[in-house]
Write a structure and sequence with these properties.
about 15% strand, two-stranded antiparallel ribbon, alpha/beta, globular, about 35% helix, 8-stranded parallel beta barrel
Length: about 250
Amino acid sequence: MKLPFLEACVDSYASAMAAARGGADRIELCANLAIGGTTPSRALFRQVRRDCGVRINVLIRPRFGDFLYSGEELEEMEEEIRAFGELGADGVVLGILTRTGELDRERMVRLIRQADGMDVTLHRAFDMTRDPFAALEEAVALGCETILTSGQAQSAEAGEVLLGELHRAAAGRVVLMAGAGVKKENILRLHSATGIGAFHTSARRGTLDSGMVYRKEGVSMGLPSLSEYEVWRTSEEEVRACAELVHSLKR
């Protein structure tokens, strides 16, 4: 990965195209960003791969919730990695933990083996580990290219002290990519505070109002805190503003 670097996290064709037009260096393609992201459909990937000129990493996460997976879920993840590799993905984004909060090395090896030359990013399962410095060393040993992290905090800003410590401990052996709450207003501060030059953002500025005229009130298809009549969408303008800031950083 050539630094500085901006990755946009998207869960729709429209968002992927907005990210590409805005100048993102890479997109992380997923589904269901409202619940932290899950594996996208292969149909969506094919559309985005066809029309998007930037690199595409695919999130491999079979469900919402923790990162402790059953044997059947592991099998599903292995198949998804192989399938997206055959479809032309540039990389995969993954992570598995043990019950006691360490990276599950044995199962991570199984997944990485399926990646077969694709870039591997350890996702924010890292932020749920017991010892982030031990997890960093495991990620290096496993051959991960990137660790996506908020510094084990609710946002990258809140975790900036640990982010800086992790960046220094990584010493160029793996790229620390700051994510969670990254936006144009805090990129320069995060870089100054941590030294990190890779950033991950959904670049969402509010929500779009649904085009529905008739609206059934009081009925929710999922989380009751989320309106069925709001659409999450990446903002091309926000991506462009973030990209300009990131790309202005010293190499």
